[in-house]
Design goal:
- The chain has 278 residues and is mostly helical.
- The protein has helices at residues 2-44, 53-74, 83-105, 107-110, 112-117, 124-151, 162-186, 190-203, 217-225, 227-240, 246-269, 271-277.
- The protein has one domain (50-277).
- Helices cover 79% and strands 0% of the residues.
- α3 (83-105) runs parallel beside α7 (162-186).
């Protein structure tokens, strides 16, 4: 009887100890994650006179340039969005994905010193890029509101529902980030290949044109399958005062959750090899 009680106590003690270790590790990773986000944000604007203002100026200047170049060619946007806002919304969503994936490429290699010195979850590094991009999106979103005011775009309450689509975009982007960061450890040329792929991806996403103007059915089909098309159009609809259907939301989250799971599985599968190659 006493032996049984002692065994139960030992099991409870072991379980409590494991839970304590897990909680301690989670606190440690959370702290490091917050530090990494601050580090990424500061490094992004190091030695820059305007600093964080570039988060606002970058999409703003891109919008102005693209508006001047393409307004005559592709000036007819959606019925509920003016062309500058149409451009701004597309750039805002696509650039968030671009930032997360680009910065995740070499996040393990560039932090090799920290990885070799401190026992830390490797996933912290791609995740820190995701949260940094989210902060930048928040700042650029304020610029979008200002531009809407300037060009006379009506404000709709549906813009608040942006918080519904953001998690899907973030999950999709960080999933790609997991894959890229894992591949970059073993294959450094992936950086140059991905730059070319990003350019192609941008042109296959209706950022400065409308998909209904395409004459090629094949290209239109590819653009329709493109997950970034769904994210961009969903965000534009909310800004324009239209709530997309449940099917569209399901497609967005299916891409996001699916890519996040796939990316993390690939990332975790190779985690024991990273230390040997970075």
């Amino acid at each position: 009887m006493i032996t049984t009680i002692e065994r139960k106590r030992e099991k409870m003690t072991t379980k409590t100890k494991k839970e304590s270790d897990f909680a301690r590790q989670m606190r440690k990773n959370s702290y490091i994650l917050s530090v990494m986000v601050k580090k990424n944000f500061k490094a992004q604007y190091r030695n820059s006179i305007l600093g964080v203002l570039w988060t606002v100026l970058n999409p703003l200047l891109n919008m102005i340039v693209l508006s001047l170049v393409f307004s005559k060619l592709f000036g007819r946007a959606d019925n509920f969005l003016k062309y500058p806002i149409y451009l701004f919304c597309g750039n805002l969503i696509f650039n968030m994905m671009r930032q997360i994936t680009n910065q995740s490429l070499n996040c393990l290699v560039s932090n090799a010193g920290l990885i070799k010195k401190v026992k830390i979850s490797y996933a912290v590094f791609p995740l820190s890029n995701m949260f940094t991009a989210l902060v930048n999106f928040g700042v650029a979103f304020i610029a979008l509101l200002v531009v809407m005011l300037i060009v006379g775009q009506p404000f709709k309450w549906t813009i608040i529902l942006t918080i519904i689509i953001l998690p899907a975009v973030l999950l999709f982007s960080v999933g790609i980030g997991f894959v890229l960061s894992s591949m970059f450890v073993f294959f450094r040329d992936i950086k140059h290949l991905y730059e070319v792929f990003l350019t192609l991806w941008m042109y296959l996403t209706p950022i400065f044109y409308t998909a209904d103007r395409l004459e090629s059915e094949t290209v239109a089909t590819v653009i329709g399958i493109n997950p970034m098309t769904h994210y961009v159009e969903f965000f534009r609809s909310l800004v324009g005062g239209v709530i997309p259907g449940g099917v569209e939301l399901l497609i967005c989250y299916a891409w996001g959750i699916g890519m996040a799971i796939l990316g993390y599985m690939i990332f975790r599968m190779n985690r024991r090899k990273y230390i040997l190659y970075i």
